[in-house]
Amino acid sequence: MATLLLVHAHPDDEAIATGGVMLRAKQQGHRVVLITATRGEMGEIYNMDEASVRPRLGEVRTEELRQACELLGVDRQEFLGYRDSDMAGRAGNDDPDCFHRALLPEAAERVSAIMRQEQPEVVVTYTPDGTYGHPDHMKAHQATVAAVELVTSEGLAPAKLYFHAIPHSLMLQFEERLREAGSAPEEATVRFPGIPDELITTVVDVRDLVAEKRAAFERHVSQMDPNSPLASMQGHILEAALGTEYFIRARGESGEEPERDLFAGLG
User: Fold this and answer.
1) CATH second-level architecture of 3-251?
2) Contact at 8 Å (CB) between 33 and 76?
3) What is the CB neighbour count within 10 angstroms for residue 158?
4) How far apart are CA 7 and CA 33, in angstroms?
5) Which of 95, 122, 150, 242 lies 20 to 30 Å (CA to CA) from residue 208?
6) How many angstroms separate the CA atoms of 141 and 165, rounded?
7) E strand map for 28-91
8) How far is CA 227 from the centre of its chain?
9) pTM exceeds cut of 0.85
């Protein structure tokens, strides 16, 4: 049995971005550890009363994450204890307790403390741009890379380090399919460039796990925008959006190009 350790910024990120590889790791008998930097206190609220839920949104999203983790087979979930920074350019970025404002050595030490306990073979976080520029995602990348450097210097290096990525071609394909299906208005499509396709090293087919992955995401009720494409997409559009997960391997080798499994080459 090996250990997969993932570092995410907010509740729900784990299900959308990496729910498939988490489920696959559990199927293969591996241990799954999730680190979540914040409790998503600054996010928008859907399907609930804003006035009553906002003061306790962190508690609500903690419970939603617990339920999602049960479906994803998470063996251990830990928070880093930072406040959600909100989207780039908003007032939440200035909160002294937010993840964005955390000193990098401090944040890296919090991540590395869990790494020392778990000694994971495989570590996953975001690309340097945080997928779409969210300050908490970028800080998660920075803190994870720094933590890996710390434990490596102590002789506890993980065998492999991955950055979750969305290839540019997939973004173009996804938006085109949404337009063809008429499942969402133009302004509702997600618009960010993605990562150049040639940088992708690892392509994991999780089409057989799409239903479970979506079910985990749906546990995050307070974040399920009923007008979002993710809430209404079906069939081939859903499979295109959630059925394959892409990564850039930043550390380690397996002898496969492209890789089809995060644990490839680990025996």
Assistant:
1) 3-Layer(aba) Sandwich (3.40)
2) yes
3) 23
4) 9
5) 122
6) 12
7) 31-36, 76-79
8) 22
9) yes
